[in-house]
Amino acid sequence: MENNQQLTELLALDLGLNIINRRPYAKEVFKWQDMDLLPHSSLDTMLCEIYEWNGRNWRTTNNNLIGYLFSGDQLNTVKNQLANVQKFPALIPDFEFTKDSMIEFGLSLPSLFNIGVSGDIKNAKDFSIKVNGVTKSRITNIDSPGIEILRSYSEFTQDQSKSYRKNIKFNYLSASLFYAESVEINLEKESGVDLDVSFQTQGVEVEAKVDTDIQKHFVLKYTGNQAPFAAKFTKGKDFNIS
Predict the structure, then answer these.
(1) 67-84 pLDDT, tens digit each
(2) Model-level pTM greater than 0.90?
């Protein structure tokens, strides 16, 4: 399997970058993989969730494609299958959200990793979130439940064309979801600056490498079920079995 150095070199070559003695930045990885940050995330965020794009931001419709395709026991069966789609290594190098990118993304970014931030990130001397061990789940036309979903979707676009056009055709579906095995939080600030981080500890192993008034360095390793932080979106009209 490719290691971080090999994957970083491949990313740099594909994007025409010179990456030396640093991790790739999140923007570089997201561009390379055609990924997008989720607008929110929770343990029940699943593949095939339907999102809207307003030109600047993603917003979930709080609907999932399978709710239109199935009902009754079949819906419950497919839902359980979807929730348990296997995760595989994403072959993405470990990467970093810098202070500037976190300011750009806003507080929604740390919250995707169950990290709470009190105070203004701009007041930090330095602040970063390093993402390690990215895994990926995805829908394919050769594995369940993707086989059933894509077959039923093809029928749905023909038999329920009005609902298809209204709810799905011009929206986007999460065809892949990305998860982190662990994240590292690095925070440096001046003494007395009102800025702190907190995090949920349920299903998380926390290692405090540094924890002082002016510097904090925590490693959060997710030991239970994970919530995704990013997705690869496919437009409804392009989500098919071809």
Answers:
(1) 999 999 999 999 999 999
(2) yes
